[in-house]
Amino acid sequence: MILAIFGIIVSLLLLITLAYRGVPVILAAPVAAVVCVLFSGAPILASYTEIFMPAMAGFVGSWFPVFLVGAIFGILMTVTGYAESIARTVTGWIGSRRAIAATVITSALMTYGGISLFVVAFVMYPLARELFRVADIPRRLIPAPSPWASSPSP
């Protein structure tokens, strides 16, 4: 039991480390899941084929339309220049040195305003990227003030 809990903690730390090093989550998640399964003592192949893959397929199948619309909306905000316009406006209000605060405030306003959290995540990336570029903050810090952190609890 304690070894399994330790495995969960180790796999979570591994997932965070891989994500911050730029490894795509689609590759990092299965690796972290293998570490968790190894610590639990369950059979690896059966855990993947009977638990992990059906659960992942169900999640993707249920949420694909929301992800698709959110991704399209985020791309449209980038292509039309709307993200850059919002970034300049917010930067003008609170200053270019406060890009992290601007990202958190904008995310909170959008989620509390009723926009789906998944859509906000896709919309906020181009906006945060532009804010961080103006403030000369590395892009790897964008996940810290992400909409996931500022969203209301269910």
Automatic annotation (TrEMBL):
<dbReference type="Pfam" id="PF02447">
    <property type="entry name" value="GntP_permease"/>
</dbReference>
<feature type="transmembrane region" description="Helical">
    <location>
        <begin position="99"/>
        <end position="125"/>
    </location>
</feature>
<feature type="transmembrane region" description="Helical">
    <location>
        <begin position="55"/>
        <end position="79"/>
    </location>
</feature>
<protein>
    <submittedName>
        <fullName>GntP family permease</fullName>
    </submittedName>
</protein>
<feature type="transmembrane region" description="Helical">
    <location>
        <begin position="29"/>
        <end position="48"/>
    </location>
</feature>
<keyword id="KW-0812">Transmembrane</keyword>
<dbReference type="GO" id="GO:0015128">
    <property type="term" value="F:gluconate transmembrane transporter activity"/>
</dbReference>
<dbReference type="GO" id="GO:0005886">
    <property type="term" value="C:plasma membrane"/>
</dbReference>
<dbReference type="InterPro" id="IPR003474">
    <property type="entry name" value="Glcn_transporter"/>
</dbReference>
<keyword id="KW-0472">Membrane</keyword>
<keyword id="KW-1133">Transmembrane helix</keyword>
